[in-house]
Amino acid sequence: MPRVGLNQQTVVREAARLADEVGFSQLTLAALANRLGVALPSLYKHVRGADALAQKLAALATAELATEMTTAAVGRSGGDALRAMANAYRGYAHRHPGRYPATQRVPDPADPEHVEAGERAVGAVVAVLRGYGLTGDDAVDATRALRSALHGFVTLEAAGGFGLPRDVDRSYQQLIASMDISFRSWPGTGA
Amino acid sequence: MPRVGLNQQTVVREAARLADEVGFSQLTLAALANRLGVALPSLYKHVRGADALAQKLAALATAELATEMTTAAVGRSGGDALRAMANAYRGYAHRHPGRYPATQRVPDPADPEHVEAGERAVGAVVAVLRGYGLTGDDAVDATRALRSALHGFVTLEAAGGFGLPRDVDRSYQQLIASMDISFRSWPGTGA
DNA sequence: AAACTCGGCTAAGTGACTTAGCTTTAAGGC
DNA sequence: GCCTTAAAGCTAAGTCACTTAGCCGAGTTT
Predict the structure, then answer these.
(1) Tens digits of per-residue pLDDT, A129-171?
(2) How far apart are CA B69 and CA B73, in angstroms?
(3) Structural domain boundaries of chain B?
(4) CATH: 1.10.357.10, 1.20.1280.260, 3.90.320.10, 3.30.420.40. Which one for A55-184?
(5) Is the pTM of this model over 0.85?
(6) Nearest nucleotide, C1' to the C-alpha of A37?
(7) How many other CB atoms sit within 10 Å of the CB of residue A135?
(8) Which nt sits closest to B8, CA to C1'?
(9) Å from A49 (CA) to D19 (C1')?
């Protein structure tokens, strides 16, 4: 039997592609093995199992998302940076519907790349909020608020929770605009 | 063999209890059958299968959540109503960690009770927003924003995405306060 | 060329869901 | 009070996904 020449990276990358096609919850080792042209148990030479694959996929997707968020915000500030980053966030979820859910997995402390990717993602948000003068506790609260809003919107949208998809773009822009207003007069700032 | 005397309602109610104990994703027909004192295939006399059970559980949980949201907001208005409803929302998710994820399933058009429950939940939000003078397109956008924020926060919190759980309560109150500010000067209102 | 590593394989076991088909309970008609 | 019958329970068996064990040959190293 000729060797296919897999390694962990090729396996995880193909898993990401497959997840985007069939959905994260439909990602199965059998389908992945089939796609890679090997028998299913052969995958265990490269990943420790289904859960470990999901974790590695999370690390990959989180790193990609963090990069796109950072890139979008660079060279901008305030509402401009916020809009760019928020649109990058939702754009990633749209382009990678299978990878996005993976990013919600809490980083594995045993995987430095995963931890670093998570820190970069949060760091991108914190950097944007610093442009609003938010630091310390306020930055923590505001970061959580922004993450909640973005993640919640994208998740509900993906789940089909918004009825007709017609005006979803506009609703998202309004959400961003409302967050912009909130951050300018953040509750804890003046009081 | 004496009959246990199950029906669909008892099965779904027990599934809800079990889900709260072991988690929605760990809810299994085998465990449920064991809990009810019957063999696994016997459950098929009452529910059509695992997916149908999840849908019925979604209908139950959505109805409960809608009731709690409505009850919390009744007799209040503006920021008062918003705070009460938001706290009821998160409170339900805390008290019923297994049922809450079920509420994210889009209502099954073939299940009138499920559809009605979903409408009541959205109706509760819309009613609160009417207290801010938000109607029409603005109400649609604001409803989506509020649902996104609440759902996103609760989901990230449940997933352990907020690091130390110490100040999560305060962050939630700040989120609500920021939504209150947003709704008072909703982006689309004045412009 | 021999040896060794390692990436592939087959075989086999577990747990979850599902279907098919049988049995027996319990209710209702006669 | 018996007989019929719908339905609630059961066992048996099949599918699918994940996992482990252990074999074998390809490719590299010496």
Answers:
(1) 999 999 999 999 999 999 999 999 999 999 999 987 679 999 9
(2) 6
(3) 55-184
(4) 1.10.357.10
(5) yes
(6) C8
(7) 12
(8) D8
(9) 8
